[in-house]
Amino acid sequence: MKRIKKGLIYLAAVMAASFMTSCQKDNTIQYNNATMGNIVNGVFISDQGNRFNVVDQQCIGELKDMKRAFIVCDVLNKTVGGEDNEYDVRVNQIATVLTKNAVPHMDVTAEMMIQDPVHVENAWISGGYINMFIMFPSKVGSTTSHLINLVHEGCLIDPETQEEIPGTYRFSLRHNSNGDKITPPQIVDYVLAGGYVSFPLSTYISDKEAEFSVEWTWHKDAGAGLSSETEVRSFKAKYTSEGFQHAPHPKVQN
């Protein structure tokens, strides 16, 4: 079993770890609030339904140029004259979010059928979306675009009867690296790249609550590195159309 040197580029993942509380006395309501949301008419609307007006920004990136984003911000105060759920915020970090509809299995194209390794670092439900921070191997310096899709495979399978369970949903996360992947014996010049993705699930799940699963292919562990061998990993969770889980959710289980 060959091993690959493991270099990590966490990109915006460090954002999810910055939940520090400040002791400074000012009008700040909450420090380091990390949340996902959509940008509507230039305003960030969190998946909790709060309106965030950016009055100060300490990072690069323009929310007005994004459709969906993951931000870390300080909630400074309620907006004077605003709505009950409207706040002025200081944005400290921004990550754009890839947003795509899930694909019915019958509509899967040849390029979507490829299942190159991809790692789900975190996953959580908010705003009717399944949100993930994913990572995948990439050659150092590569500019190749990777294709990510969530495919609706059908219902969950009862492990005893091997029959489908009505009212449940099974998805697979598909990754097509377009050739930009680990290919032994070239085992050194790779890093882990990645980012945030969101898939709205209301197209498939009409109930307010439902059980679902997601599975994907990833490298087997090999100590400090990655094995050239792969395995299927998955997690099960409960979808809630109006629910919100604070980001990031604890790491998914193998």
Continuous helix count: 1
How much of the sequence lies in strands comes to: over 45%
What does the radius of gyration come to? 20 Å
Number of strands: 15
Structural class by sheet pairing and helices: mainly beta
Which residues sit in consecutive blocks of at least 5 with pLDDT less than 50?
1-25, 249-254
Mean pLDDT rating? 83
State the helicity in percent bands. under 10%
Major sheet strand order: 1-15-14-12-11-8
- Sheet with the most strands, sense and barrel status: 6 strands, mixed
> Between the first and last Cα atoms, what is the distance in angstroms?
20 Å
Bulk shape = globular
| Helix-strand pattern | EEEEEEEEHEEEEEEE
Key traits:
single chain, 254 residues, mainly beta, six-stranded mixed sheet, 1 helix, 15 strands, disordered N terminus, disordered C terminus
Gist?
The protein has one helix and 15 strands; from the N terminus they run ββββββββαβββββββ. It has 254 residues and is mostly beta strands.
What's the helix and strand layout?
Blueprint: E1 3-4, E2 7-8, E3 30-40, E4 43-46, E5 51-57, E6 68-78, E7 86-99, E8 103-104, H1 110-113, E9 119-126, E10 129-139, E11 147-154, E12 169-176, E13 190-200, E14 209-222, E15 225-240
Parallel strand pairs: 2-13, 5-7, 7-13, 8-11, 12-14
Antiparallel strand pairs: 1-15, 3-4, 3-6, 4-5, 6-7, 9-10, 10-13, 11-12, 14-15
Description:
There is one protein chain. This protein has 254 residues and is mainly beta. Helix content is 2%, strand content 51%. The chain is built from 1 helix and 15 strands. The strands form 2 sheets. A 6-stranded mixed beta sheet has the order 1-15-14-12-11-8. It has a 5-stranded mixed β-barrel with strand order 3-4-5-7-6. A hairpin with a 2-residue loop joins strand 9 and strand 10. The chain starts with a strand and ends in a 14-residue tail after the last strand.
